[in-house]
């Protein structure tokens, strides 16, 4: 320990400003590597989830960004007519998220309704931790509606319990029965940005049929259209629906297949990854050069003390262990800081009561976070190996003899 303390204080930290700069650069490189890796994992998960839609005959709606939407002039009769046309001529998947409601739960989190029709439910194939799947064959306002709830609501509203509340989109009192509980961190990825997710830990998944949709208000009608999916259709039929939407609502909708959505996403996403990778690569090169240069300069400045240690039995294998211990400490500090920031960000969603991003995980981190941390650790091990081995090779080239003591 004494020899390690000597090298840390007299050699490695001889120029502490350079060491501090190296730590900052290393943290920045680690953070960029972590963010990029986590984004890639999230994107891969999104691709897997949405891949079921990536087949001929499926078209996803997308509001043209140049279309000016004046929602105040919409009339529910126009949207009801439009959904009537949809029901008569198309098979479609509809899911609309984010309608908030107050619902008692132990975390005092605002719950959200997610409305889903049978076709969308078949496509998503949500997994349950307990209970049974949804039933879409019911009479609205005449029967109890079975729902699924997120894991965060399960302790307060277990399977078999009932929930009496005002439905956000019909503004009517509804009697809901908890049919099942979604697995922790069940989520839905965005069609147009697969790396973006909404989590259902504090959601109520409510099945909708044609009767429910016709009884709903403008909020569900319009939001449901934003990414409605036409199934087993054609480009011509999708164009006809676009014309009907333009006629009834004055909105310009595009309909793309999922491969077109993937291609559009990849155009800007891959470019962003290339920029991040280039910046990270440059930072790592600078870190390696800075660490080696600082070590060599410090050794030269402390050549007498360094020589004494060699003469009293310090071997190059022991020196290698000291070097690895030192850089292991530095890199571990960066990983701990990165872990703490990630955990705090995850916990921040709970503090802000941001229910669509609140997740469960070991020490607050979910699987993609841990995998990204492992990737950063792997990169750090490679960088530490390069620094130590190159520095030792350079040090061995420094002429060291009793003469330096004079």
From TrEMBL:
Record has Magnesium as a keyword: no
Residues of the signal peptide: none
Chain segments annotated as transmembrane: 275-303, 323-344, 370-392
Alphabetically ordered keywords of this record: Membrane, Transmembrane, Transmembrane helix
PANTHER family membership: ABC TRANSPORTER PERMEASE YTRF, MEMBRANE COMPONENT OF TRANSPORTER-RELATED
Name of this protein: ABC transporter permease
Organism: Exiguobacterium aurantiacum
């Amino acid at each position: 320990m004494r020899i390690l303390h000597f090298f840390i204080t007299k050699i490695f930290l001889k120029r502490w400003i350079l060491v501090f700069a190296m730590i900052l650069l290393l943290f920045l490189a680690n953070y960029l590597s972590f963010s990029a890796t986590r984004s890639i994992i999230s994107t891969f998960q999104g691709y897997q989830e949405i891949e079921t839609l990536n087949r001929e005959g499926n078209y996803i709606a997308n509001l043209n960004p140049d279309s000016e939407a004046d929602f105040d002039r919409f009339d529910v009769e126009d949207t009801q007519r439009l959904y009537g046309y949809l029901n008569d001529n198309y098979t479609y998947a509809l899911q609309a998220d984010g309608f908030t409601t107050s619902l008692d739960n132990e975390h005092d989190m605002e719950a959200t309704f997610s409305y889903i029709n049978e076709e969308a439910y078949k496509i998503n194939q949500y997994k349950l931790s307990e209970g049974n799947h949804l039933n879409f064959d019911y009479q609205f306002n005449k029967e109890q509606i079975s729902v699924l709830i997120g894991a965060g609501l399960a302790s307060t509203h277990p399977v078999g319990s009932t929930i009496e509340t005002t439905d956000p989109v019909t503004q009517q009192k509804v009697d809901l029965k908890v049919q099942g509980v979604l697995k922790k961190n069940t989520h839905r990825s965005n069609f147009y940005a697969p790396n973006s997710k909404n989590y259902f830990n504090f959601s109520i998944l409510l099945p909708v049929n044609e009767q429910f949709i016709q009884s709903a208000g403008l909020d569900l009608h319009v939001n449901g259209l934003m990414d409605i999916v036409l199934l087993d259709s054609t480009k011509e039929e999708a164009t006809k629906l676009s014309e009907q939407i333009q006629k009834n609502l004055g909105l310009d909708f595009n309909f793309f297949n999922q491969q077109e959505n993937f291609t559009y996403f990849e155009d800007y996403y891959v470019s962003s990854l290339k920029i991040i990778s280039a910046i990270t690569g440059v930072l790592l090169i600078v870190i390696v050069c800075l660490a080696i240069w600082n070590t060599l300069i410090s050794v030269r400045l402390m050549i007498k003390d360094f020589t004494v240690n060699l003469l009293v039995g310090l071997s190059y294998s022991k020196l290698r262990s000291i070097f690895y211990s030192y850089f292991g400490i530095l890199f571990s500090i960066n990983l701990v800081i990165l872990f703490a920031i990630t955990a705090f960000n995850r916990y921040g969603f709970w503090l802000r009561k941001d229910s669509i991003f609140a997740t469960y995980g070991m020490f607050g981190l979910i699987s993609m976070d841990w995998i990204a941390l492992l990737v950063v650790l792997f990169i750090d091990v490679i960088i530490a190996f390069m620094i130590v081995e190159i520095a030792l090779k350079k040090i061995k080239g420094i002429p060291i003899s009793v003469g330096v003591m004079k």
